[in-house]
Every structure is written in structure tokens, then in C-alpha cells.
Amino acid sequence: MKSSSYTVVLSHTSHPGNVGACARAMKTMGITDLRLVNCVDYKNETAYNRSSGAEDVLFNAQEFSSLEEALSDCHLAIGTTARSRKIPNPPSLCASKLPVFLLDNQSSSPIALVFGNEQNGLDNAEISLCHMQVTVPTNPDFSSLNLASCVQIITFLAMQMGSTLSPPETHQEIASHQ
């Protein structure tokens, strides 16, 4: 799957520097479609400085007033969460299994990787709009991930689906150790 098949959706981000840092994390992984749902004003020096070379991703971001609107053209929405939810849907997945899940759910429509705000993450209503919720295993005594760090981890794993798990185009003879 190409990086253009992915979109990163940030919902209710409260600090412009975090929007800029997420743009940088995305561009590093080759993903450029950034969608912002009710985010803080991000077109400023703080966001620009934190984007550190990913200004194109930052300033080409699309703005939406609802998560439903941001996801309207997406085939699949994967919400990130740090905590277990007591809601029946969507099902949960450990982030390490994300590449295989994406391999099994390929589409020509965009796949949304959805992230909540810095303080509380996605709320239950937002998670329920997703088809899958993904958790990054962390230290149980300190499970807080920086938003851009979470974007970096999830986009890295998403990009693995297209690079390391796809069958090779041609068979190559591998040299022996000898």
C-alpha cells in the first residue's frame, strides 16, 4: 500500500506545536494527508518551527468541524487509545499487529489513522466511529505517549504493511553465508 493511501486525522489538538510535530512525524514516514478536526490555530510560528521541514504537510492540512466529516471518504478508520474501553465496538488490536491487519484490509480508498487530543485522547463517541482501536503497549506506571510520538509509531507500523510484509516482486537468489 502506498503512503498516499493513509491519512492522519488529529481531533481536538490543543497545542500548535503538537500539530507541527505530527506533520514532521508523518512526512518522515512518507504520509502527507493531514486532517484536523476542531484543532487549535496551527498556522503560526510555533507549529512551523516544530514541523521542521514538513511545512508543506502542515499548511496543506484540511480542516473539518466533525470527525464524521473528516472520515467520510475513508474505507477504514483506526482509532488510537491508551486505555481499554468498556464499549463493545470497535474491536481492539495491539499496535504490533497493525501491519498484518492493514494487509488484510487493503483498499484504494484512504485509511484513516485517528488520534485524539493531548489530555484525554479520543472520547468514546470518537472511538465508536472507528472500525478498530489500536493500543501501543507502554509502561503501566507511565503510559502517556506524546502525540507526535504516537503518530510516528502508528505511521511507521502502517508503512511496514507495504514494505516488509508484501511478497517480493521477483524471486532473488540469496547468497549463502559461505
From the structure above, extract its key features:
178 residues; alpha/beta; 17% strand
What does this structure look like?
This protein has 178 residues and is of the alpha/beta class. It is 33% helix and 17% strand. It is built from seven helices and seven strands. The chain has a seven-stranded parallel sheet. The longest helix has 17 residues. The C terminus is likely disordered.
**Overall strand count:** 7
Class by alpha and beta content: alpha/beta
Estimate what percentage of residues fall within beta strands.
15-25%
Mean pLDDT: 87
What's the shape? globular
Q: Rg, please?
A: 17 Å
Strand order of the largest sheet: 3-2-1-6-4-7-5
Give the uncertain stretches in residue-range form: 164-172, 174-178
Terminal CA distance: 36 Å
Helix fraction bin: 25-40%
What characterizes the major β-sheet? 7 strands, parallel
Number of helices, where a helix is a run of at least 4 consecutive DSSP H or I residues: 7
Order of helices and strands: EHEHHEHEEHEHEH
